Structure formats: C-alpha cells, structure tokens
Amino acid sequence: MMKKTNGFSLSILFLLLSANVLLAQPGRTISNSFHQYQQATLQEKIFTHTDKDTYLAGEIIWFKIYNLDAATHLFADVSKVAYVEMLDAANKAVLQSKVSLKAGRGAGSLYLPSALPSGSYTFRVYTHWMKNFTADYFFHKTIRVLNTLQEEKAPAPVAATNAIQFFPEGGRLVSGLPSKLAFRAVDGTGKGLKFRGAIVNQDNDTVARFEPGRFGIGAHSFLPEKGATYRAFIRPEQGKPFTAPVPEMLDEGYVLSVTQEGTGLRAVVRTNIPGRDSLYLFIHGGRKSLSQSAAVVEGQAAFFIGADNLPEGISHITLFDRKCQPLCERLYFRKPVKGISLTATTNQHQYLNRQKVKLEIAGFDENRRPVSADFSVSVFKTDSLAHAEEDIRSYLWLSSELKGKIENPSYYLTSGDEQAADLLMLTHGWRRFKWRALLENKPATHAHLPEVEGHVVSARLLDPVTLAPTARRTAYLSVPGRRVQFYSAESDTSGLLKFYTRDFYGPSEVILQTDQRWDSLKVEVLSPFSTERSSFASRPFVQQTGSTADLLQSSIAMQLRNIYAGKFLNRELLPPVDSSNFFLKADKTYLLDDYVRFSTMEEVLREYVPEISLAIRRKSYQLKMLDYEIKQFLPTPPLILLDGVPVFDDGNKIIAFDPLKVQKLEVVNTPYIYGSAVFDGIASFTTYKGDLGGFEVHPKATVVDYEGMQLQREFYAPMYEGDINLSRIPDYRNTLYWSPLNRTDGEGKASFDFYTSDMSGNYTIVVQGIAEGGRPGMTITSFDVNSK
Fold this sequence. Notes:
The chain is mainly beta. The protein is 13% helix and 41% strand. It has ten helices and 51 strands. The longest helix has 39 residues, at 2-40. The protein starts with a helix and ends with a strand.
C-alpha cells in the first residue's frame, strides 16, 4: 500500500513538473528569440541639438548630432555618415546634406537660402542603417523660417480641424469584457483639446461620459455589449461639436489591464474564450527583459512584475498564447532616476556690449559626483522669435520611442504626475520588429548596410538600350583632383553598385563609367537620401511669429552680419584626410619639373620612364609595364589614370595629352588587384590643378555634380581683446556662441570665453549632453546684455 501511495505521489509530481516545463517552453522560446534578435540587430537612435529653433532666411543653422545605441544610449561607433534634411509642408526636401560621424558624434551647419519661403519645416536626421526601419524613428523636429527679404502673400487661412482617437488598453475591445478606453484629442495645431464627450450606442443611449486631463489625453472604463455599435460625441470648448468612431470590438478575445500595485505592476488578463489555457507575458525595455506564465482560470489570469525588474524608461508588455501568437500589447513608463545634472554658470549676470563672458560648465551624477560628459553649448538672443524646444532627456526617454509628436514631453520627466505618463503610454504604440519573423529566427535581411568607413555612393548599371539592370559587371567611380580618388564596384543581381569612398568631402564632379573597350553600359547615380516619410507633422506655421519689433531688429541684424562678416560666416574647415592613393605607395614617382620638359608625352615616357614600354602597332600606341621582379613586360596595358579618372584605351589618349599640364607620374609596375578587376600595373598622371587639364572624358561616361560629406563651417565669434580693426565693424550677432564637440574634464568641468555683441537684451544658454553610461542631461540659464 505504501508503495502504491509513493508511486501515485511520484506520478502526480511528474505530471506537475511536466506541466511547468511545457508552460515555460513558449516563454523561453520568446525570450531566446528576442535576445538573439537584439544581439544580431543594432538599433541606432539620433538626437540633434540645433543652436535654436527659429531662423530668418539668410541665417545658418548650427547643429550637433548624437548617434546612440537605442537600447543603452551609449555612443554608437558604427555608422560614419548622417543624412540631414529640411522638408517643407509637402514633405519635399528643400535642403540636404551629409555629415561625417566619428565615434557617434558629428557637427555641421545648413545655410538657409535667402529665397527660402517662410514656413514650418521638418528637420530630420538619420543614418543609412536606419533606413532599414520605419522613418518614424528618424530624428525629427520643427524648424521655423521667416523670410524678411521678400514680400510673401499670407497663406489662406485653413480651418482648424479637431480630432480624437481611441485606444483600448491592450489593443482591442472584446464584447462583454470591461476595458480601459484611452483617448487623445487635438485641435488643428496638434495641441491637446479641451472638451466634454459621451459615447452612445445604436439606440442613442449614452453609455459613458468623459473629459480629458492634460494635453487632451484621458481614459475611462468601458464595457462593450455584444452586437452593439458605438460612436462618440465631442463638444470642444472652442469649435463645433463633432462625432468620431469608437474602435470595433471582437466577439471573442483577450483584454489586458495593467495597474500599479505596491512596488510593482499587476497585469490582469480577461477572456471570454472557454477552456483553460496558458498565457505568457513578455516585458522588455532597453537591454532588459523578463517573461512570466500563468494559467487562465475561469476566464482570468494574473501576473505581478516587481519594480526592480522593470528598466527605466519605456517597457513593452506583450501577451502571448501557447502558440507564441501576440494577443495584446501595452506600454509602461518608469521615470528615470539615474541621470546627470548639468550646470552653466557665467561670471556675471549682466554684461556690456562687446564684453567678455566666462562660462563654466559642470556635470554631476545623482550623488553629486563629477562625471565625464560629452556636450554641446548654444548661446542665443532670447526674444519672441528664438527659443529652445527640444530636450535630450525627454527625447531619448520618450519622443524617440513613440510615433507621432508628443506635446511637452519634458513634463513627464520633470513632474511627479505618474497618471499623465501612464495615459500617454495608453495612447501610443511602438514596435521596431515584427514578432512573427522574430520568433521564426529568420536571419535578418537588410537592404541598407551601415556605412562603417565613409560615404557609400550607390548607382545602378543598366543596359543602354533596354535600361534593364545588368549584373556581375564592373564599373568605376572617380572624383577628379590632385588626391587620387578612384573606386571600383561589381553590380549585384539587381544591377546595384556600391562604391565605398574614403574621406569624400565637399561638392565635386564625379565620373562613373565602365571599361568602354569591352562594355557600353549606362551608370545611373542613386540618391542616398530616404524617400520614406514619417507620421511626424511639423507644427503649423503662424505668419506673425514673434513681435514686429523683434522681427525687424532680427532682419536688420541678419543683413548687417552677412554684409560685414560674410567672409567669416562661410569659412570652411578642411578636415584631415588620408592623402595616400588607393594603391598606397607607388614603385616609382616622377616629378616632371625635375627633368627637362618635353613637348610631347611620347618623349617624356621614352626618355624618363623605363618602366613603361611604348610600342606602335597599326598607327596606335600601346603602353606596357615592365615588371622588374620577373624582368619582362606584362601582357596587357596598365590602368592609366589622369587625376584619378581611368583612361580606357591602350595609350593613344594619354600620349596625345599635353605633358606640360602634368606635374607628376606615379608608377606601379606589378600586377594590381582592385576589387573584382586585375590590372597589369598602374600609370597615374596628376595635373597641376587636378582638373583634368581640359582632357575630354569618354562621351558614354556619366558625369554628375555630387555632394560628399559637408565641409564643416567655422563658427564666427570675434575676440575683441587688442583687436582694433574688429572694433570698427558692426557686430549684430544674435547667436553669440556655438560649440558642439566638448567634453568635461576629470573634475566634471569645462570653461569657455566669448564676447557679447552690439545687440542688447536677454541671452539664453542651452547645454545638452550625454555622460558615461548613456545618461542624458540638459540645462538652460540666461544673462543680460546692456548697451554702454
């Protein structure tokens, strides 16, 4: 009898353990697949600090780019190029530029043309890698431009359209199951709407009444009945009443409810699907994740998540069934505690015109210990036109994680209003991946590779007659100049070419071609900028932005700056570049000025260059390279370059070129492999100006103007001590100082000196930065400038 009892007990125990193992398997599958995906897929997040947010046409936008790992907020040293665009109200790019990134940091500027119309523009920044994901997660902000140099017709007034959206907690309404129904109402400018609302059924019976809290956001309990249909009546404080649909309900399904309970969260799942089933809750945020399982008993399952298990910022709470199918999703926000405190202190509170300002920056952690922080500083005139809108803290923790535009995102970090933050979570959703593909553990395929060394020029190789893509053929890209920039690429199955350039800066004329001796293909250059548009909407433009007095003063100041300091404002810094050729070191270099100059290239080569044999066959010249190692001439002509541009013939064209325009000749007299091409040596000619010296490229070559990475403008800030000449020049700077690439020292401090201008008034100092560990910080302070 005892043996039977033990056997029975062991059987029950085995069944319970088996059930727990089975119960845990889907949760483990989800967790493992998610971690595998995270490790294999880098997510970049960009924040951009501009010197201010409102400009006049004719001014310069200064900006600093922070490229970060989206999960940790550490600098991401993968992409080496950022793409910057200004889009108008029709989402058409009016300005575009490429900015070099080093160790996740970049700085640049955009000159606003004097013909740019007044309006609200979307300023967006992204990397080539970020193009693999939705454009909603590019960096976006609104830039307002006022054109005071041309008379513009005021746009026709557009009637403000109020709107409301409803968001059932967890994703869907299910008949017969109580749910929390969140909502967000906005006016025609995108700001929160104040109103009174009611939900009525098909019989016009009122089943719920509701009002919003802050920013037009709120939630109320709602119990949908089977077979009923609902609509909402909204009566705004200003504007006409309107109706809006309520989301359709499912006859059967699951409803998720998440509430704060003690030191953690309690998640309750309700379902009207009969039977007992197992459900799995997966929570992830940043690099942290956890999963739990629970059985459905009498249509309900419950989970508890301890606060210590939740990461700071946004957590994604997803409910799965036994088959790993996502059922509900909910966001939760835990206010960040760890961060940095930045301070900006001036040596005085008031200054005279053209007086030196000493600025001290300090960074501390939450325990008041000094931290090493990477930061940018802007000092600009405070008036009704210019102000600072973005905040690196609220952007990284909130705005970058949610689609659309958030009204006053910093409120959720600086206030103790946890209810407002939770309501915000209820009205937003976020997914950087699709669960089905993730759970199937399929290797990710990405159309856009990260630019890990420099800008990648993309092109397509086409048949010149049919324009069909041509695969597995080699094409060449050249950037003519004294520094040889010559690149090759082999087309893929879609005819796509990728030229991996190195230190390609500034506007240039680029030449793309195939070897016309064997191929007669067309090379079409592709734009590297994204054509995808996001759901971000710039704040509507108001014609009378700021006071008339401020606008007039700023306009006069801008014109005077451009007249008296134009040469300083547009001074560009040449970045340090690797000047070595793609073939690194030539076997022999000939500086032709060291020799007696001949009037024909044939004489030069025959008299001075023993490495090159020059033969004439059927009245055509043929160059061949002497390989000293094997002591014989190589069988085919070498690669002939003129200022980096290949001359695809056996030697006739270069022989006909004027040698008096050539400064040097570099020779590689051994076979050279470059990409998919093999050359029997290289003969690289360089002219004095690097401009081809009038040489005509092949008529079937593609010649286009192309912008490399932008040359960095030097911010103009005059230093008046002892400079008598500058004291006579009017100084109407309204941006007194801009310094993008800075770092605090071992004591967490940094200092700067700059001078005030002739413009009196209040000035704002904005400091934005990232400290060790990916902790963002920001501070704003001000000082006054009075005339003498």
